[in-house]
Write a structure and sequence with these properties.
The chain is built from ten helices and no strands. By secondary structure, the protein is mainly alpha-helical. Helix 1 runs antiparallel to helix 6 and helix 5 packs antiparallel against helix 8. The longest helix has 27 residues.
Length: 259
C-alpha cells in the first residue's frame, strides 16, 4: 500500500517541471521583456515588478481558501479536488505566456502592461504549487513524507534546467514571442498529460461528482493545515501551542512511539 501511494504521488509530481520552467521565467525572460518596455523614465526598474508576485500570493491565497473554493464547490455541487486545482493552475500558467507573447508582439508598451501576466502566473502558482506541495505531503506514506517533499522541490530544479536547455538551444533561432507561445503550448500539452496521469494513478477523473463542501484530507488522515504545520518543522516555526514545530512534531512522534 505504501509503495502504491508513493507511486501515485510521484506520478503526479512528474508533470510539474514544465510548470516550473514557465514560472521561473519571471526572473529571466520576463525581465528581458520589461527592459524593452517603457519604465516611466527609469522610475520603475525592469526587475522591480517581480515584487508583485509574493504580494499577490499573500493576498490571494486566503481568498482562494476562504472564498473561491467554497463558492465554486457550492455552485457546481462537486469538490474542487487537488488535481483539479493543479490542472487549473497549469491553464493559468499557459494563459500567462499567451498574454506575454501578445505583449511582446505589441512592444514598445509601458512596463505596467506586464501586470496581467504576473497576476495569471501568480494564480497559477497558488493553484499548482501550493496545492501540489500540500497534496504530495498529505498523500505520501508517513515514512516517505520527507522523500516526497524533496521530490516536489526537485521538480523545480528539473524545470529550470529544461528552461535553460530550451533557450540555449533555440533562443537564437526563434523570437522571444514565439518561444513564449511554444511554452504556452507545451504547458497545455502537459496539462493533458497531467489529466491522464492523475486519472490513471488515482482512479478518479479531474471532475469528480462527489458532494460539495468536502475537503480532501491526506491519505493518513492528516488535514491540510496539519500537514502544512509539519512542513514548517524545518524552519522552526511555532505550532499552535507555542512550541517550535520541529520540537512539537518530534514530541508528538515520541508520544506515538510510547503508545
Amino acid at each position: 500500500a505504501d509503495v502504491r501511494a508513493l507511486r501515485t504521488v510521484l506520478g503526479v509530481l512528474s508533470t510539474l517541471p514544465v510548470f516550473w520552467m514557465l514560472y521561473d521565467q519571471q526572473g529571466s525572460v520576463w525581465v528581458l521583456q520589461a527592459r524593452d518596455m517603457g519604465t516611466f523614465g527609469g522610475a520603475i526598474q525592469p526587475e522591480q515588478l517581480g515584487v508583485l508576485n509574493p504580494i499577490l500570493i499573500l493576498a490571494l491565497l486566503p481568498f482562494f481558501e476562504k472564498v473561491a473554493y467554497p463558492r465554486i464547490e457550492h455552485h457546481v455541487g462537486a469538490r474542487v479536488t487537488p488535481p483539479l486545482r493543479m490542472a487549473a493552475g497549469m491553464a493559468f500558467a499557459s494563459a500567462a505566456f499567451v498574454v506575454a507573447a501578445v505583449i511582446e508582439a505589441a512592444l514598445p508598451l509601458n512596463i505596467l502592461w506586464q501586470i496581467p501576466q504576473i497576476v495569471l502566473i501568480s494564480v497559477g502558482e497558488i493553484l499548482t504549487s501550493v496545492t501540489g506541495l500540500e497534496y504530495s505531503y498529505t498523500h505520501a506514506p508517513a515514512k516517505f513524507k520527507a522523500t516526497v517533499t524533496s521530490a516536489f522541490l526537485l521538480t523545480t530544479a528539473v524545470g529550470d534546467v529544461c528552461g535553460g536547455v530550451l533557450y540555449a538551444s533555440v533562443g537564437d533561432k526563434a523570437s522571444r514571442g514565439v518561444l513564449m507561445l511554444a511554452c504556452a503550448a507545451l504547458m497545455l500539452a502537459t496539462l493533458a498529460g497531467f489529466a491522464y496521469v492523475a486519472k490513471a494513478l488515482t482512479g478518479q477523473p479531474l471532475f469528480p461528482g462527489s458532494s460539495a463542501g468536502h475537503h480532501d484530507d491526506g491519505a493518513d488522515g492528516e488535514t491540510p493545515s496539519t500537514a502544512m504545520s509539519k512542513l514548517g518543522a524545518s524552519h522552526g516555526l511555532p505550532d499552535g501551542d507555542g512550541r517550535p514545530v520541529a520540537i512539537a512534531v518530534a514530541a508528538d512522534d515520541d508520544d506515538d512511539d510510547d503508545d
